[in-house]
UniProtKB/TrEMBL annotation:
A GO biological-process term: DNA recombination
Taxonomy of the source species: Bacteria, Bacillati, Actinomycetota, Actinomycetes, Streptosporangiales
Alphabetized UniProt keyword annotations: DNA recombination
PROSITE patterns per the UniProt record, alphabetical: TYR_RECOMBINASE (PS51898)
Pfam families (UniProt xref): Phage_integrase
UniProt cross-references to InterPro entries, sorted A to Z: DNA_brk_join_enz, Integrase-like_cat_sf, Integrase_catalytic
Domain (Tyr recombinase) ranges: 1-93
Name used for this protein in its record: Integrase
Amino acid sequence: MWQENGLVFASKHGTELDAANVRRALRVILKRTDLNPDEWTPRELRHSFVSLMSDAGVAVEDIARLVGHKGTVVTEKVYRKQLRPVLLEGAETMDLIFPGED
């Protein structure tokens, strides 16, 4: 729950949850899915959210605001993992260097 005090995860009483309780609650939820609870953490979900928003064309300023960053530097350098454009650019470059038969 997002509140004026900046809490992202709050208890049913509106108090702040500590990190261990958030991780524990996430593991309980993940065990009900096909996802491996040992591979997913709140941090992984945060990185995935930023990357998916970025791949969908959401402006980095909007993504930074959504994840609570004061500016875009941390969002761009730490969280945004845009593999698809990098892989595509690399593949296109290799096609230019080593053209195949059409």
